[in-house]
Structure formats: structure tokens, C-alpha cells
Amino acid sequence: MTSKALTVPAVALGTWAWGDSGEAGDGYFGSRLSEPGLREVVEKAQPNGFTLWDTAVAYGMGRSETVLAQALSGRDRSEYQLSTKFTPQLAGDGPDPVADMLRQSLDRMGTDYVDLYWIHNPADVARWTPSLIPLLESGRIKHVGVSNHNLEEIALADRILGEAGFRVEAVQNHYSLLYRGSERAGILDHCRKNDVRFFAYMVLEQGALTGRYGPAHPLPEGSSRAAVYNGILPRLRALTDRMAAIGADRGASAADVATAWAIAKGATPIVGVTKAGYLDGLVRARGMELTEEEIAELEALGDAADVDTRGWWEREM
């Protein structure tokens, strides 16, 4: 049986950008990251209760896992939780690709178990899910989640695990004020009813909802996110202005409001943090109470922006 129920902080820390090499055009964000800078992130995150780190083999083809392990080195393993993923599209051709990919992740991260292991994309639920059972039984993974799966796929994965006494304990999908497909498809309700933790990634839409960018201050040219978002920034203005105003009343930023909104909806936002200073905003978001009127107003403005920020890797939910 599963060790104990999955417990997670209010906000998880994402390391997608940690897979960038820092060279312009290499990696999704074109981040300029340094080992001392990322250690500083860890040193500030841990005492503030941000102890769940979400990574994946696919982030920089293992670079994110390696860099995360370096940043966490010297800490007791019980002080933090590691979340990483099996990506079917990267599966090798051995007899047990899931165990192989996990073993490589464990080696890169210098640990003998992962707290939360995800099937990253639902390439073939019936094929990949059963391979998780022996890994759960051996304790190499403690909890299972599925990412980018629709309701039917979540239910199928849960049924397969259920036959061995385990279950899907977490779902991780793109969810933001601009992209509420999982809510409309009933996935959030399903998670609430079944005590499944819903993790929301891209809550800040890669920076487009931080309020730091607009038509006059576009996202950095040459990055993949600039190509996706710069053209729609004018349509986000009403929403980001309102977020900034709601934040200003509470000594917070528009980004903090976007994160607080996700928490208010019952989600655990996964927020990418590349600088220690960003953690102050997560502390503010965690403590922020939005009113029902504010939530409804923000969602109406998000709908009115009428943009489609679905990632190239995502299907309709």
C-alpha cells in the first residue's frame, strides 16, 4: 500500500527553466542561471516551507534534475520532496523503460526514491501505468501523479493502480486565469471529490500574467515564450491591470494575485523560481485571501481576453 497520504506545501517550486543552459536560444526560457544563485533559492525556500521541487527528465534532457540536486546537496533528504516524471515520448527500448528512466533520474538527483512520480503525457495509459506498481511496491516512488491527462485517462490510470492497492494521488495540468480547461472538463471537481491533489502549472503563463510585461515591455526576444505571448499582451491589459490593483491593496504584485487565485481554487500552483527574491511573492500569495467577487471578476476578465495559451504539447481536456 501507499506509504502515507501525500502532503504538499501550498505552492510547489518548478524547475523547468533550470534545464536551460543559459545560452541564448538554448532552452525554453533562455535563463541566465548560476549555481550560487540557485543554491540561494533553496536556502530561502526551505525555511519558508517551500519544500517540494518539481522537475522532469524532459527539462533540458536531465540538466534540470542535475542542477536541482547540486542546489539541494548537503541537505537531509527528509527535509524536501522531489517530484519528477516519466515522459513516454522519451522512453528507451529496453524491457522496462519506466524503471530505466526512473533509475537515471535517481542517479542524477543522488537519491534512492522520489516522493512523487508522474506520467508526464498520456501516450498510452494502459501500457505505461502498470510499470509504476513494482516501483511503488519497492518504495522507489512514494506517490503517483498523472500530468496532461483528461478525466477518462485519470480514471483508467487510477483503476490500474487500484488493482494493486495504490491510486493516482495527484493531477498536474496547465491551469491559469487564461486557461481553465481542466476546470471546465470537471477535473478540478473530480480531484476535490476524490482527495486528489491538483497541481497547476503555468499559473503565471510564463511571465505574461506577472504584470511585468506589456506591449511597451514585451517578453525577451528570441525566447520561445516571446513568440507565444508577445502578440497577445495587448489583450491581457485589462486583466493584469486589475490584478495589479487587487495586489496593490494588499502590498502585493499582479503575479502574487495570479498565484493566490490558483490556491483559492483548491490548486497547488507550481511556480518556477530562478531568483531568491521571487520567493517573497509566494509568501505573500500563500497568505492572501481573495474575495469571491474578486475571483469572479478576474475570471471574467480572463475569459474576455479570449486568448488560447494551450501549449503545443497539450490536447483539449
From TrEMBL:
Oxidoreductase listed as a keyword: yes
Q: Which InterPro entries match?
A: AKR, Aldo-Keto_reductase, NAD(P)_OxRdtase_dom_sf, NADP_OxRdtase_dom
Judging by the UniProt lineage, the source's domain of life is: Bacteria
What are the record keywords, sorted? Oxidoreductase
What is any Pfam family matched here? Answer: Aldo_ket_red
Q: Where is the NADP-dependent oxidoreductase domain?
A: 11-301
Q: What is this protein called?
A: Aldo/keto reductase
Instruction: Name the species this protein comes from.
Output: Streptomyces hyderabadensis
Taxonomic lineage from the root: Bacteria, Bacillati, Actinomycetota, Actinomycetes, Kitasatosporales
